[in-house]
Design brief:
The complex is a heterodimer of chains A (about 210) and B (about 400). Chain A has about 210 residues and is an alpha+beta fold. Chain A has helices at about 10-15, 70-80, 85-90, 95-100, 110-130, 150-160, 165-175, 185-200, and strands at about 30-35, 40-50, 55-65, 145, 150. Chain B has 14 helices and 13 strands. In chain B, strands 2-8-7-6-5-3-4 form a seven-stranded mixed sheet, sandwiched between helices. In chain B, strands 9-10-13-12 form a four-stranded antiparallel sheet. A two-stranded parallel sheet of chain B has the order 1-11. The two termini of chain B are about 35 Å apart. Classes of the chains: A alpha+beta (about 210), B alpha/beta (about 400).
């Protein structure tokens, strides 16, 4: 049905989301991770059951206050990760999820990273809870623009919200608009996140 | 699958009679400015439509100018504020204030931002929890410097009917001109521009079962005016460009039909709106109505569902054949939730979980019943997977 906003696969996962955490199921989990904020319009919680010997995910559940893209991409992700090791799961990128779904409109990619982030948080929480602190990926974001205190996370966010070039990135974040020293760094980060989330390879010129 | 269209505030389907009128005129190709017979045929159709539009709002035909959209009409009026050229017919003071509300259509909000950059002082008047523009604040804001006050007649998202009469009184008392964007009001509630004494009023064809790409602007006789689109004598020199004859024919017929259908339809929709509202209220808990029949137009019902994201809700409904709109950020393409609901101080999560039902001439009791059948199931489904809804509440 070409008139549907999304691909058939997105539609299927949206209409019949897999691995939803229902309160009455009483799903036992070893770790949970939350991301987003209801105030921003979306929120996601991932619950993982983990085999402590092999450090693989044996089962998972999730819950969301999110749109169709968030629901579909998290549903697909929840199917992908079963049986995978925690470290392999960490290597799943947004582009992998997109490919699995057969694509999403650009302005919807923002919604699809929600599950990814909640999952990463759940993994971190598992490591923390089991004393494996060296495996925790520090969520604290590096500052790129020292003048205006703009972090990598903010640049990533801007890319997800539609920044496609340095000019747009500056419009959205004000990065590099003060002394300008960080321009090269910011452009490199921009290219990195464009590739990570959209598979766009840009030539970064300074 | 049969579609249930409940998004009439976004646009409306062509009325079959409008379609007929357009088809009957489809071979009229002449330039209405041409003196020969083909030109005169087109001219006759346009002037006939002008009379019909004037008739609906009790204007004189020469007070009606045809434009390309409601947005164009609004842009035209707002542009007058910054117009101060020496040879312009409008001798607005260079430093003049524009007063608008915070819930105007984006074509007013964005244009006012642009005017601000060009030196105009723009004052924005907020709304109360009901979504009604605060008249006290308006009174405070309007001064002898104000050249134009623009307040919409009916809000497109909530259907809140603004106290335009009072706003106009405030504007005129200070010598300011008054404009109202009436695209959601025309053809739904009776309007008399003479009684109202409004200076400018915006009309759009596609909101009242006419075609897209055509609208009209009422300009009271004697009101200073300057065209937005220059370089032609069309529309009495007020809007350059060869007229959209077929669109104008459609608008004329649409308006004519509204005059005869409006009253019965408003009574019918008032009843259906009540059934929908009471039905939602009795079937679904933890909701919040953002529209109230006490001060909102009969065709619109805006409601928020706690713990549910609007875009997901909209798409599940779409799958079930029901077409509505939402104030959720995710559906807007801009990632910003409804500014209208935010201005009403609605908690932001409720803004993301809002739906707007807007009914029209095709809406039936059966359709409303169908919505009441599917909606509770969908809300329940989304709430079961929601991070922010504890089901037992």
């Amino acid at each position: 049905m070409s008139s549907w906003l999304y691909t058939e696969k997105v539609k299927d996962h949206f209409m019949n989301p897999r691995n939803i955490m229902f309160d009455d199921e009483d799903f036992q989990f070893d770790a949970e991770g939350k991301t987003g904020n209801i105030k921003c319009g979306d929120e996601m919680i991932f619950y993982l059951k983990i085999d402590p010997d092999t450090l693989t995910i044996t089962d998972c559940r999730w819950k969301t206050f999110g749109c169709a893209s968030a629901i579909a991409s998290t549903s697909v992700l929840s199917e992908m990760i079963k049986g995978m090791s925690l470290e392999d799961v960490r290597n799943i990128t947004n582009v992998d999820i997109m490919n699995e779904l057969g694509g999403l409109p650009d302005n919807k990619v923002h919604c699809s990273v929600l599950g990814d982030k909640a999952l990463a948080e759940a993994i971190n929480n598992y490591y923390r809870g089991h004393g494996m602190f060296e495996k925790v990926h520090d969520a604290e974001s590096r500052i790129v623009c020292e003048c205006l205190n703009i972090t990598e996370e903010e640049i990533e966010h801007a890319v997800l919200e539609g920044a496609r070039n340095y000019y747009q990135l500056q419009e959205m974040t004000k990065v590099g608009t003060s002394c300008g020293k960080c321009e090269e760094d910011a452009k490199e980060r921009l290219a990195f996140y464009l590739d990570k989330h959209f598979g766009i390879n840009v030539c970064v010129q300074t | 699958m049969q579609r249930i269209y409940l998004d009439h505030n976004a646009t409306t389907p062509l009325h079959p009679e409008v379609k007929k009128a357009i088809i009957e005129s489809i071979d009229v190709f002449g330039n209405p400015s041409s003196l020969h017979e083909d030109g005169r045929r087109a001219r006759t159709l346009i002037e006939d439509a002008r009379e019909k539009v004037a008739g609906l709002i009790n204007a004189d035909p020469e007070e009606i100018m045809f434009v390309g959209s409601g947005s164009e009409a609004n842009n035209t009026v707002l542009s007058l504020v910054s117009c101060s050229g020496a040879r312009c017919s409008l001798h607005a003071p260079v430093e003049s204030d524009l007063v608008i509300s915070t819930i105007e259509h984006p074509c007013i909000l964005e244009t006012s931002k642009c005017l601000k950059n060009r030196g105009t002082t723009v004052k924005r008047i907020g709304v109360d929890k009901r979504g009604l523009v605060r008249m006290d604040d308006l009174q405070q804001a309007v001064s002898g410097n104000t050249s134009l006050v623009s307040i919409m007649m009916v809000n497109n998202e909530t259907g809140a009917i603004q106290d335009v009469e009072r706003a106009l009184e405030i504007a005129h008392a200070s010598g300011a001109m008054f404009h109202t964007d009436a695209v959601q009001a025309v053809g739904k509630i009776p309007l008399d521009v003479k009684k109202l004494d409004v200076d400018f009023l915006t009309i759009s064809a596609h909101k009242i079962y006419g075609p897209k790409g055509v609208g009209a602007l009422y300009v009271k006789k004697g009101t200073p005016f300057c065209p937005l689109i220059r370089g032609g004598h069309q529309e009495m020199g007020r809007r350059a460009g060869t007229e959209n004859t077929l669109g104008i024919v459609g608008l004329g017929r649409a308006v004519e039909l509204r005059a005869s259908e409006m009253k019965a339809e408003s009574e019918r929709l008032t009843g259906l709106n009540r059934i929908l509202r009471e039905g939602i209220e009795s079937r679904i808990e933890n909701i919040h109505f953002n529209s109230d029949p006490a001060y909102c137009i009969h065709s619109t019902l805006n409601v928020s569902f706690e713990g549910v994201e609007g875009e997901a809700l909209l798409l599940y409904l779409d799958y079930e054949g029901v077409e509505v709109s939402t104030g959720s950020a995710c559906a807007s393409g801009s990632l910003d939730p409804s500014y209208v609901l935010l201005e009403m101080d609605l908690p932001i999560e409720f803004t993301h979980g809002s739906l707007r039902f807007s009914m029209g001439r095709s809406t039936t009791r059966e359709e409303v019943d169908y919505v009441l059948d599917v909606l509770p199931r969908i809300v329940k489904k989304l709430r079961r997977m929601s991070t922010v809804y504890g089901g037992e509440r």
